[in-house]
Amino acid sequence: MSRRKARPGPSAVRPSAPAVTAESPCPCGLDAPYGACCGRFHTGTGGTAPTAELLMRSRYSAFVVHDEAYLLRTWAPETRPGEVDFDPGLRWTGLEIEDTTEGTAFHQRGTVTFTARHVHDGEPGAMRERSRFARHEGAWVYVDGDVTG
Ligand SMILES: [Zn+2]
Predict the structure, then answer these.
(1) Residue pair 75/83 in contact by the 8 Å Cβ criterion
(2) Which domain of life is it from (predicted)?
């Protein structure tokens, strides 16, 4: 009986979505554990995101942890898709907020410009977008965005 071939090393295995726990560093990049940062908005224990930027961060983190329900409920009804497709070959690796306009507790609208980095089938890439946010029944929701490179 021949010996089994050695399994391929970790570098040959496609990375899967990282297991994010409440104690993990938040995927959105703020210096806080996930449970105390975006996770509290995903579970609802922290209420709703108070600013457009925090909503943007929490939606990015929802893409990382594949929280479809959160993405749909924070999408404006007029632009909300029926479902969110998570590309199994895509892994989000970081978020940088570059600019915001309005979007605070005192506003009804706001924009957030960001770059989100990813690895797609092993190839690093980035997406830059200026997203528009508005309030729906008092809570911030994502309306749409312009991809800027
Ligand atoms: Zn976060």
Answers:
(1) no
(2) Bacteria
Query: Around ion ligand 1, which residues have CB less than 5 A away?
Result: 26, 28, 30, 37-38, 57
> Could you report the per-residue pLDDT of 50-74, keeping only the tens digit for each?
999 999 999 999 999 999 999 999 9
**Where are the domains positioned within the chain?**
18-147
Nearest by Cα to 115 from 74, 81, 77, 145:
145
Residue 13 has pLDDT above 50, yes or no: no
CA of 56 to the centre of ligand 1 (A): 9
Residue type, 149: G
Q: Model pTM?
A: 0.87
Q: Distance from the CA of 37 to the center of ligand 1, in angstroms?
A: 4
Q: Domain 18-147, what fold?
A: Nuclear Transport Factor 2; Chain: A, (3.10.450)
